[in-house]
Design goal:
This protein has 424 residues and is α/β, with parallel strands linked by helices. It has two domains: 11-145 and 312-367, 3-Layer(aba) Sandwich (D-Maltodextrin-Binding Protein, domain 2), CATH 3.40.190.10; 147-310 and 382-420, D-Maltodextrin-Binding Protein, domain 2. The protein is 40% helix and 16% strand. The protein contains 18 helices and 13 strands. Strands 1, 2, 3, 4, 7, 8, 9, 10, 11, 12 and 13 form an eleven-stranded mixed sheet that branches. The longest helix has 15 residues, at 49-63. The model is unreliable at 1-27 (pLDDT under 50).
């Protein structure tokens, strides 16, 4: 239930999230081909998305009796290895989870990702640009995402703290929560990418928009602001904000995960995406937990050159492979329809790409995220998604090493630049 990517233009105007035109229809189009069974890989391995996707497949099949699905839920972190291997084989899935950006660009080189430009021209407007490579469309998003802090209102009240607006406020909040015997921030360090959220957000706060865009375009971190981002991470780690043994904690799997810690009231905050309510729901028996959880944007960093209202985010989508039947593209468009988009919004798995479905968002936190995105001057796509696959993985590894005390403020810069040049 995680993330996204945008190609060369890694700065996506946040307003496009809710204002982009959407031409998806409420009902599936006429069946474009004869009897087929499509293999569908998605990352909805837990509820509510697992059942929701099965229902979407069943509904589409009911309207298109000749189109059946072999639905295969796959745990999110497995996609990094399974998709590249599948695209090298003679039997890739027809339809698979896609986050766009540098990863998509890497996958397109296999020659097995379907060019859907002619069938989707104009659909979703700017929101779909993150799934383009060289001006051609190779997939479509079904939700967009924004990252911020989820927090337990009851634990904040117990510690006598309020929502922090600045980095100094956050540090003070961490100290007061510790003093009250409460774990300040939960993090799923085992999965690495949650660590990268912190480095990336500090980069967004320290670096101007032009510097961010230039770095993604050139795949090089050469602005001094990235050194400051590393220093910010080191300073945050020095406040002891996370749970014990956080390096071995998974992000989303089980009640002992960082998501489970927030759901169960074992920690006060977690920096995660808007999808988190749906992730937390099956991890607690407390049916009222959703009312106890709030959301706030990443605090401002004094002296940072970036716009302090900018966001970090991305989106989830799907791509068809060249072995897929024409029905695959029609199904992608069906996922942008108001009917499906309302179901996704109500389930809390992301922010709808169809603006007509935004009112169906059920989480107060998700609604707050949408409002913040509307006000944001721009949204920076996660760096590990915006960069080519190998470079993004190097960034995640370096961020995880930094959190493990094995690097310094320059480590992420070195890792990205070395990966981009092949170690030269």
């Amino acid at each position: 239930m995680r993330r996204v990517r945008t190609v060369a233009a890694a700065i996506v105007i946040a307003a496009a999230l809710v204002t982009a035109a959407c031409s998806g229809s409420d009902k599936p189009a006429a069946d474009p081909n004869g009897p087929v069974t499509m293999t569908w890989w998605h990352n909805g391995s837990s509820e509510p998305l697992k059942s929701l996707w099965q229902q979407v497949a069943d509904d589409y099949h009911a309207a298109h009796p000749n189109v059946s699905f072999k639905v295969e839920p796959i745990q999110n972190e497995q996609f990094q290895t399974k998709v590249p291997l599948a695209l090298q084989s003679d039997s890739p899935p027809d339809l698979y989870q896609q986050w766009g950006g540098g990863n998509l660009a890497s996958q397109v080189t296999s020659g097995k990702v379907m060019d859907i430009t002619s069938q989707t021209s104009g659909l979703l407007g700017p929101v779909a640009e993150g799934w383009q490579v060289g001006g051609k469309q190779y997939g479509l998003p079904y939700v967009r995402h924004a990252v911020g802090f989820w927090y337990r209102k009851d634990l904040f009240t117990k510690a006598g703290v309020t929502v922090p607006a600045t980095l100094d406020d956050l540090n003070a909040t961490v100290a007061k929560l510790r003093a009250a015997g409460i774990v300040p921030i939960a993090i799923g360090g085992k999965d690495r990418w949650p660590d990268a959220f912190y480095w990336s957000y500090f980069a967004v706060r320290e670096c101007g928009k032009d510097a961010l865009a230039a770095s993604v375009k050139t795949v090089k971190l050469d602005d001094p602001c990235y050194q400051k981002a590393g220093e910010d991470v080191k300073a945050l780690l020095g406040t002891n904000p996370f749970q014990e043994a956080f390096l071995g904690t998974p992000a989303q799997q089980g009640a002992g995960s960082s998501a489970g810690m927030i759901a169960g009231g074992q920690a006060a905050m977690e920096l995660q995406g808007d999808w988190q309510p749906a992730t937390m729901a099956p991890l607690t028996e407390d049916k009222a937990f959703a009312d106890k959880v709030g959301w706030f944007p990443f605090p401002s960093v004094p002296g940072g050159k970036g716009d302090q209202a900018a966001m970090l985010g991305g989106g989830d989508g799907f791509s068809c492979t060249t072995k897929a039947p024409p029905a695959c593209v029609d199904f992608l468009k069906y996922l942008t329809s108001v009917d499906v988009q309302k179901k996704l919004a109500a389930a809390g798995v992301g922010l709808p790409v169809n603006p007509d479905a935004a009112a169906a968002l059920s989480s107060a936190g998700a609604k707050a995220a949408v409002e913040q995105v509307q006000k944001a001057p721009y949204t920076q796509t996660y760096f590990d998604i915006a960069f080519p696959t190998a470079v993004g993985q190097a960034l995640d590894d370096a961020a995880a090493n930094l959190f493990a005390g094995k690097g310094d403020a320059h480590s992420v810069i070195d890792a990205v630049n070395n990966a981009a040049t092949g170690g030269r």
